[in-house]
Amino acid sequence: MSTARTESHVILGLSNQNGQLRASGKPAGGPGGGSPQQPASQVKASSTINNGSSQPAPTNTVIKPGDDWKKNLKVPPKDMRMRTSDVTATKGNEFEDYCLKRELLMGIFEMGWEKPSPIQEESIPIALSGRDILARAKNGTGKSGAYLIPLLERIDLKKDCIQAMVIVPTRELALQVSQICIQVSKHMGGVKVMATTGGTNLRDDIMRLDETVHVVIATPGRILDLIKKGVAKVSQVQMIVLDEADKLLSQDFVLMMEETLSFLSKQRQILLYSATFPISVQKFMNSHLQKPYEINLMEELTLKGVTQYYAYVTERQKVHCLNTLFSRLQINQSIIFCNSSQRVELLAKKISQLGYSCFYIHAKMRQEHRNRVFHDFRNGLCRNLVCTDLFTRGIDIQAVNVVINFDFPKLGETYLHRIGRSGRFGHLGLAINLITYDDRFNLKGIEEQLGTEIKPIPSSIDKSLYVAEYHSESGEAVKP
Question: What is the predicted pLDDT for the residue at 5?
Fold first, then answer.
C-alpha cells in the first residue's frame, strides 16, 4: 500500500470510491493551512499491514553488564501537552516495578510511554498473575498497553505456537493493535504477531499460520473461520483479550465469541476491557470468567479534557454551519460522524466542493480502500475524516482535537465512543454536536444518562480548551 501524496490530482466525484477527496484551491490539510502535526509518540501504521504479515525484523540489542541500557534507547521527544487526571491520577508506579523483561521495557519506553496510566497500574500486575480481569476504563486512557504489556511478558519464544489472542470488533482496530504490539515487542528477539480480519485473502492467512505465530489479533468472524478449518491451532492459547468487550458480546458477535472460547483450553486467562458494560457482559462473565478481578475507573463517563457544545440548526443549515466551524476553529485533525454510509459520502463530497480536502470511511467500502484511508489519515495526510460509527471503537489518532457529530446519535453509548476520539490519553479536545428539532430529546437523554453537560456553542470558542499549543505541561493556559 503506497502512501498518497497530498499534492495529487483533484477528485470531486465519488466514482472510484477510494474514500479520499481532494479539494482544489485550498491546502490539502483543510482549514488553518499546513499539515497537522503528529505527536512523535504516535504509532505509525506500516504501509504493508494487510494481515499483519509484514513486520520489522526483531532487534537483538546486546547489552553488556554495567551498561546504562536506557542511554541507547531511541525515545521520541517528550510530549509537553497538558494531560488531565484521567491519566495522571496514578499511584506513582514505574514500568520497572513490574519485573518485566528488559527487552520489553525497551519497547515500552521507545513508544514514548513514560509511566503507567491508572488502568495500566491496576491491570498489569493482576494480568501477570494469571487471573481473569473485567476492566472498565475511559476511552483513550491506555487500555491497549494495559493488556499488551502482560501478554507480551508471558510469551515463551521457545514455543512455536499461538499463545495469546486479542479479539476486536473492527478491522481498523485490529490493524492498529497489531502495529502497537509489533512496536512494543521489537526488542524481544522474535515475537511473531499476526493480524487477521475479514475482507482480506483467506489463503494469505493460511500460509502465514503455516509459519510460527505467537500472538493473533483478529476480528471475530475471521479467527473463528480459521479455527474451525483447523488452520489456527489454539489449544495452547493461555490468554485471550476481548477489547471493546461490550461490542464483542452484543448480539452481532456473542455467538462467535462463545464458539471461539469452546476451542480453547479450560485453563485460559480471559481479560475483558471496555468503557461501557451492559448486561450482556455480566452474563458472559458469570459463564466464562473464574473469580475475575474487577477494575472500575469510571466514576464519570466522559473524558475530562473534552469540552462539549451543541449548535441548534435545521437540517438544511448543517453544511453551512460546518463550513463556519472549519473557518473559525483551529483544527489539527477532525473526525465528522454521520449516521449512514450514504450520508458519509454525500457530506464528503459537499466538503470537497467547499474547498476542503477530506477522507471518508464506512463499512461498505472495499477493504483495501479502508486500509488506505486509515493509514493515510493516521499519518496526517488529510485534516478531515467523515465516517460512520465504524470509526468509534478504540481508534487512537493522537492528532485529532475536534470531533463533530454532523448527525447526532440516538444512544449514549455511541455518543461516548464518538467523542472519545478526541482528548486521547488525557489531552484536550472539542466535541461539537449539530442538533435539529428532532434531536432535542436525545440530547437531553444522553446528558442525563452520561451525567455530563453539553452547552450551547458560544460565538467564540477559547482555544485553550482544545489547542495543545495554548497550554503548558502544568495545565496553565498560555496567552497567545
Answer: 34
Give the integer Cα–Cα distance in Å for 360 and 338: 10
Q: Find the CATH number of the domain harbouring 455.
A: 3.40.50.300
**C-alpha cell belonging to residue 183:** 512496536
Give the span between the Cα atoms of 203 and 158, in whole angstroms. 27
Contacts of 141 (CB under 8 A, 6+ apart): 86, 87, 117, 118, 119, 297, 425, 426
Q: Which residues contact 342 (CB under 8 A, 6 or more apart)?
A: none
Closest C-alpha among 402, 459, 401, 410 to residue 436:
410
Euclidean distance between CA atoms 453 and 451, whole angstroms: 7
Which residue range(s) make up the domain with 156? Answer: 50-296
- Say whether 411 sits in a helix, a strand or coil: coil
Q: Under a CB-based contact definition with an 8 Å cutoff, are residues 57 and 128 in contact?
A: no
Q: How far apart are CA 307 and CA 428, in angstroms?
A: 8
In a domain, 395, yes or no: yes
Ranges of beta strands (E only) in 362-459 are 384-387, 400-405, 429-435, 455-456
Spatial separation of the C-alpha atoms in residues 308 and 452, rounded to whole Å = 9
pLDDT, residue 86, reads 57
279 and 329 housed in the same domain: no
Chain centroid offset of residue 130 CA = 25
247 and 223 housed in the same domain: yes
Asked whether residue 3 is domain-assigned, the answer is no
Asked if residue 215 belongs to a domain, the reply is: yes
For 289-319, how does the pLDDT look when each residue is reduced to its tens digit (9 = 90+)?
999 999 987 666 666 778 999 999 999 999 9
Read off the pLDDT of residues 124-183 as tens digits, 9 standing for 90 and up.
999 999 999 999 887 778 889 999 999 999 999 999 999 999 999 988 889 989 999 999
Could you give the number of structural domains in the chain?
A: 2
Nearest to 338 by CA among 394, 403, 387: 387
Q: What is the pTM (predicted TM-score) of this model? A: 0.73
DSSP, res 22? B
- CB distance 216 to 238 below 8 Å: no
For residues 327 and 390, membership in a common domain is answered with yes
